[in-house]
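Example (one chain per record):
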Amino acid sequence: MNNDNGKYSGDFEAVCEPALIRIEATFHPAPGFEYLETVPLGETEPCPTEPMISVQAELKPVAGSIHRFSVEEYHRLTKAGILTTDDKVELLEGWLVQKKSHNPQQDTSLQLMNEILHKDLPQEWCVRIRSAVTFRDSEPEPDVAVVRSDEGTRIYFARHPQANDIGMLTEIADATLLGDRADKGRIYARAGVPIYWIVNLIDQHIEVYEQPSGPTTAPAYAKTTTYRAGDSVPLVLDGVTVATFAVSDLLP
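Predicted structure:
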């Protein structure tokens, strides 16, 4: 509605099922703009260089409107173009979570892992970098995934790798360390991912998690081993050690 000072204000509720947000906005003429009441026929007026309307808006959650997405709903959002790669989110336990930006140390460590893994990886396995994997209630995008490829990598043209395709997942962590341990660790343990590495850039070591609990009330890994500079970390796939790598070779 219009108020006494010529501004327009009102509440606009996003139309969706259920409503996710309410936008509270105030509209007013841009500074320096004067409305023209009459313009004589045959005369023209220059267009204002500033926008006719400026918007001040605040996004607020609507009570009772928080929604957890299933994996199927998440896929429909991406197929419809509502979510794109520009949105930089991943689905974790039904929530859309923003992915962190990468710093040079993370990118360097990722490149080192990619190069080293490719040298010694058996042919029936392949490396996927920052690509999605699909679980029952999550679709995370780990930094590194070692997945089965004995049927050819084109098997993942129509779907992402699932838990039984995965030999090992890795997250490269600095500011994300607590979340990678707690949240990603819980998600990967629930899904039954057999081996989970955290390349810990803060403490300069590699944490290897084994023996996942599966879908229990408190999913976790039963065994944790820390490999430091001077150690060699084994890569175990299907219970077999297929290669070992110097920790210093995997850290930037």
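Caption: Helices lie at 71-79, 104-120, 177-191, 247-250.
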